[in-house]
Write a structure and sequence with these properties.
Elements: E1 3-9, E2 12-18, H1 21-36, E3 44-45, E4 50-51, E5 57-65, E6 73-80, E7 85-89, E8 95-97, H2 105-114
Antiparallel strand pairs: 1-2, 1-5, 3-4, 5-6, 6-7, 7-8
């Protein structure tokens, strides 16, 4: 069964399939880099609290699979309103993946999922 790559950018949601985890992670990086290059968000002032662009998730790219129910892999990247990118793993309880020295968030995501060998 293939991996699913879901991209959420505002109200627009797109879904793609990839045969393997490496191909799915390539899609995550391609979509993530494209979304990070888009125009930035402005600060949101709610009178009680102000949200800076770096506090807002402008877009999300998620990979899951290969199982449909209770997938073994649930991970992705968040593109913040200031253009920064953060990698994460997990489903409802997301754990941030911290990049090591001179490592991009996409490389950190690959490293984190390397131990999760689910390719047939």
């Amino acid at each position: 069964m293939p991996f699913r790559v879901t991209t959420r950018n505002g109200a627009k949601v797109t879904r793609d399939r990839a045969a393997g985890l490496a191909e799915a992670l390539d899609l995550v990086e391609r979509y993530g880099r494209g979304l990070a290059a888009q125009p930035r968000r402005r600060e949101v002032d709610l009178r009680v609290r102000t949200f800076a662009p770096g506090d807002q998730v402008a877009a999300r790219v998620e990979v899951s699979g290969p199982q449909r129910w209770r997938p073994a892999v649930r991970a992705g990247i968040d593109v913040r309103g200031d253009g920064s990118v953060a990698a994460w793993t997990g489903g409802t309880q997301r754990e941030p993946v911290e990049p090591e020295a001179s490592e991009s968030p996409y490389d950190a995501l690959r490293r984190a999922l390397q131990s999760t060998s689910v390719d047939p």
